[in-house]
Amino acid sequence: MRTPSVKRLLSPQLVALLGVLLFNWIVFPGFFDVAWRDGRLFGSLIDVINRGAPVAILSIGMTAIIATRGVDLSVGAVMAVAGAVAATCAVTGQPVIIMLLAPLAVGMLCGLWNGFLVSILSIQPFVATLVLMVAGRGVAQLITEGSIVTFNDPVLIFIGTGSFLGLPMPAVIAIALMVGAHLLVRRTAIGLFIEAIGVNRSAANFTALRSRSLVLAIYAFGGVCAAIAGTIAAGDIRGADANNTGLWLELDAILAVVIGGTSLMGGRFSIPLSVVGALIIQAMNTGILVSGFPPEFNLIVKAGLIIIILVLQSAKLAPALHRIFKQRPVKPSIQTSEKTG
Amino acid sequence: MNPRYRPLAATTLIFVIAYGLCILQYPGMWSTRILGNFLTDNAFLGIAAVGATFVIISGGIDLSIGAVIGLAGVVVAVLVSHLGLHPIAAFGIVLTMSALFGAAMGAVIHFLQVPPFIVTLAGMFLARGLASILSQDSIPISHPFYKTIMDLYYRLPGGGRLSAIGLLMLLVFLIGGLIAHRTRFGSYVYALGGNPTSAALMGVPTGPVTIGIYALSSLLGGLAGIVYSLYTSAGYPLAAVGIELDSIAAVVIGGTLLTGGYGFVFGTLIGVMLQGLVQTYIVFDGTLSSWWTKIAIGVLLFLFILLQQLVFSAHKAGTRLKKAAA
């Protein structure tokens, strides 16, 4: 479905992002100042994009997974594993190509494992990915042997902290991934297939859709996204910290996807809006830091934001709100099918 | 045997075999001291896991448990150490607050029709945030009442100690089991987990039951927080981070289906004990690093869900065969 571009610009997520940025600007007047130094841009706004990139990348993979009515709790742990692999390759002096591809391959393997449990063994996504969430961090510590592996590899450090066309490298990677994934799902039928599986998997199967291999592929993609985020995180701190890399980021990624309007019940999804969701979360974090509020308020503000979004998106209130704002009516939610499958 | 009990029996059998293997390798593990410590060290996890069992049987999820434990501990510490309240009064306040907190989450889940995952995630952020606003540091509690409770224990034959908090956990499991299997509320919880629509059609008051389930979960979270404060003699805002996932793992290992409608409170006790066994084994071994705990629990989790999947698909195939024969 194609919505007029003006309406798309006025999506609640973008309005919310602008609102948060505006709030930041009020409490910290220098928020929108952007300076050009040493061939790259500097400023709070750039910082939001840079710091928000890992969660944005996670949310890209998570969007596709949640759209199939799944969830991936293991992305944080997979980040740690990928970071550990990248760091180990760098320390042992592997060629650059292996150092970059090995984490991605490991991430894909983790994703395939999740996909195998969900798609072939039909285990509930929450428990299936909980396995790797618990064990993955242990595996990462096994790879780094419990210590923080530091490295000086210029390529990895460039990925974490370098810049391209003035923009920080993590942001460039996130934008490229977002555009690529968005085109892939919207210019081909894949997006439609994902939505079909999310709405009703057995109906999708009856239309001869190969939901099994598609779900497998989507979880693998989620694993690759997590591995990219993990490599960036490792490059950023010039080391692999198996204990803390990506810790609880799965929750931020899921939150970003939900803020982006993708339903946890599967179906409707939007990758760019999930990235906007990730930016909203990061803008709030940065805003609380630059405004001088005690960081303890961060979680409270986050909770408040979730509650507001819940109210706006709730199946019961949304039709009423939509009537008030005279937008197109939302589909009534199919509640009887929630427990099947 | 009733096929209903198969997963529970399998879990119990695996625990007994695993414990037997541990004893074969380290005969020292066969002692009431170890068993007593199992109960004391996992008391807060067990109490929280009982609440998680109810939530999961109803088809929901509660991510806020760990944060509620942390918040409850900090509130108790502030009330006792800073405001000079008697611990019993503080316990009463904390338990009431926790129950109300859970009831509010249940109300949001029921009335706004939002997935429990997101509501309890907000609850987790809120509780953790409130705890760190109250205090950034660990607040020590040095009230004589705390010492009295921690000195209370029943001496088991063989020198083991059945501590007050370990006993409290067993009591919570007993009451939880009675509520789940012997009360109307318990059958409502199962009905809700089986299929919310048909439960509503059968006359289950879904609203009050949902609110009750989350209130119970947070109440037990608050109780677990109190137990944790007794165990550590302090309140710390970052206590019990990630305990919600440990308790969910315990529930799943205990044979409860995450899809809802099926499970046993007793199974959760086995799940908690198995996690304790893994940790104790790794301590006994001494050469294994702590990260093996995580890997072992992950592998256990995988084996158990695989087992459940096999048992249930065998059960389904069996009924299909019977139907075909008839």
UniProtKB/TrEMBL annotation, chain A:
Protein name (database record): ABC transporter permease
Organism: Rhizobium lemnae
Taxonomic path: Bacteria, Pseudomonadati, Pseudomonadota, Alphaproteobacteria, Hyphomicrobiales
Topology with respect to the bilayer: Multi-pass membrane protein
UniProt KW keywords: Cell membrane, Membrane, Transmembrane, Transmembrane helix
InterPro entries with a match to the protein in the record: ABC_transp_permease
TM helices/strands, residue ranges: 14-36, 48-67, 73-101, 113-135, 155-185, 214-235, 247-266, 273-293, 299-318
Predominant localisation class: membrane
Domain of life: Bacteria
CDD domains, per the entry: TM_PBP1_transp_AraH_like
Subcellular location: Cell membrane
From TrEMBL, chain B:
Pfam families cross-referenced by the UniProt entry: BPD_transp_2 (PF02653)
Protein name from the UniProt record: Galactofuranose ABC transporter, permease protein YjfF
InterPro entries: ABC_transp_permease (IPR001851)
Topology in the lipid bilayer: Multi-pass membrane protein
Superkingdom of origin organism: Bacteria
UniProt key word Glycoprotein: no
Compartments (UniProt record): Cell membrane
Upper lineage: Bacteria, Pseudomonadati, Pseudomonadota, Alphaproteobacteria, Hyphomicrobiales
Principal location: membrane
Keyword Cell membrane: yes
Keyword annotations from UniProtKB, A to Z: Cell membrane, Membrane, Transmembrane, Transmembrane helix
CDD domains in the cross-refs: TM_PBP1_transp_AraH_like (cd06579)
Spans traversing the lipid bilayer: 6-26, 38-57, 63-81, 88-111, 117-139, 160-180, 211-231, 291-312
